[in-house]
Design brief:
This protein is α/β, with parallel strands linked by helices. The protein is built from five helices and five strands, in the order βαβαβαβααβ. The protein has one domain: Rossmann fold (3-Layer(aba) Sandwich). Strands 3-2-1-4-5 form a five-stranded parallel beta sheet, with helices on both faces. This is TRAP-T-associated universal stress protein TeaD.
Length: 136
């Protein structure tokens, strides 16, 4: 399997950035087109003005990831919606070869209430999903 185009969904957690190190480790100096995606979960935004702040945070997450991926071709995508749906739909639309993401980003009660984005991406994806374990 030849991997040229990777989708890298990030939630902004330190754990989600472990996926960047995995890409560098696995693919080294390979020519890759990495699409960095951050989805602002709009179903949880109910307070006026929060969307704008969330968009600023999203931009910061995308910029930091792109900086860490210097040397690779990167595309930064910020979206608002439902993370797992947007990840799967984007991967299909852009015909990526692989999705690289971590097992967990959020923790505690929120994970149990909303379900695991990662498991829903695995279930809905038509391309391979590489799950990066938590680093110590």
């Amino acid at each position: 399997m030849s991997v040229k185009k990777i989708l890298l969904p990030l939630d902004g957690s330190k754990r989600s950035l472990d996926a960047i190190n995995m890409i560098k480790s696995l693919f080294g100096d390979s020519e890759l087109d990495i699409h960095i995606l951050h989805v602002v979960e709009t179903e949880y935004i109910t307070v006026p003005g929060i969307q704008e702040k969330a968009n600023e945070i999203s931009k910061d997450i995308l910029d930091k990831a792109a900086d860490l991926l210097a040397g690779y071709s990167t595309t930064k995508i910020g979206m608002s919606g439902v993370a797992y749906k947007d990840i799967v739909e984007y991967a299909d639309k852009e015909k990526v070869d692989m999705i690289v993401m971590t097992r967990t980003g959020i923790s505690g009660l929120q994970r149990y209430l909303v379900g695991s984005v990662t498991s829903k991406v695995i279930s809905g994806s038509s391309v391979p999903v590489l799950i990066v374990p938590e680093s110590d």
